[in-house]
Amino acid sequence: MITDSHAHIYFDSFDTDREAVLARAREAGVTRMLLVGTNVATSRQCFELAHGAPGVFPTAGIHPHDAAEADDAARAEIEAFCRRPECVAVGETGLDYFKNFSPRAAQLENFRWHLELARELDKPVIVHCREAHEDTLALLREHAGVRGVMHCYTYGPDELPPYLELGFFISYSGVVTFPKNEANRAAARATPLERLLVETDCPFLAPQHRRGGRNEPAYCREVLERIALARGLPLEELARITSDNATRLFRLPSEAPNAAP
């Protein structure tokens, strides 16, 4: 059983073959996936797609790109989604100082709101961090005790320790397969096995030999293969470990679903 801990299959690029995408994921051993919301509309889509779909779990949040639009009405809807029992995490939220689609002040305030909600609900938070390492750490330290995952971790081993000290899980994507990204593979080797997760972040960040194309949950297997090679572990063992980790962090059912997603 492989768990893709971060997917966005509600994107319109999946509209023509979404069922086939889910079937390919199952054939590749990806039997569970988290559908991660980035604003009110996509969070709603996550819940709609996960409804009645074994092994598919929704989250709700407002991405830093959309932080400027995170008004009271939007937050009220996100909070309502997060309070639903089937919601397994708060987010995606965090900081993105690379694209800066929203002002930094709005991003910081939006991130803080999500962290406070995660604390109140005792649900993990899914953190996006791009070129915002110091500010991300500062806010996480303000909310010490909130559990969660550094999604699509792209840094090297030097930035890793403070996130581990805060109790966070670290999730690796197709970025770990890129030939020139030895620093990210070094971080994957340095991450304690009990904190390691894998994801696709599809439709983005397809693994190396699929770069330039649409990513999909089936390719989570390739992320696992690359990390297993880097760590000298059998693929099946790493799949079990990372799925067990996802079960603990997100409080997922431990058994594989009996039916196709």
What does this structure look like?
With 261 residues, this protein is α/β, with parallel strands linked by helices. It has one domain: TIM Barrel, CATH 3.20.20. It has 9 helices and 8 strands. The protein has helices spanning 18-27, 40-50, 72-83, 104-121, 133-142, 160-165, 182-190, 220-231, 235-250; strands spanning 2-7, 30-35, 56-58, 90-96, 125-130, 148-150, 169-172, 196-198. The strands form 2 sheets. Strands 4-5-6-7-8 form a 5-stranded parallel sheet. It has a 3-stranded parallel sheet with strand order 1-2-3. The longest helix has 18 residues, at 104-121. The model has no long low-confidence stretch (mean pLDDT 96).
List keywords for this structure.
5-stranded parallel β-sheet, 261 residues, alpha/beta, TIM Barrel
Major sheet characteristics: 5 strands, parallel
In CATH, what is the class? Alpha Beta
- Assign the CATH architecture: Alpha-Beta Barrel
Rg measurement, Å: 17 Å
Q: What is the secondary structure topology, with strand pairs?
A:
Layout: E1 2-7, H1 18-27, E2 30-35, H2 40-50, E3 56-58, H3 72-83, E4 90-96, H4 104-121, E5 125-130, H5 133-142, E6 148-150, H6 160-165, E7 169-172, H7 182-190, E8 196-198, H8 220-231, H9 235-250
Parallel strand pairs: 1-2, 2-3, 4-5, 5-6, 6-7, 7-8
Helix pairs in contact: 2-3
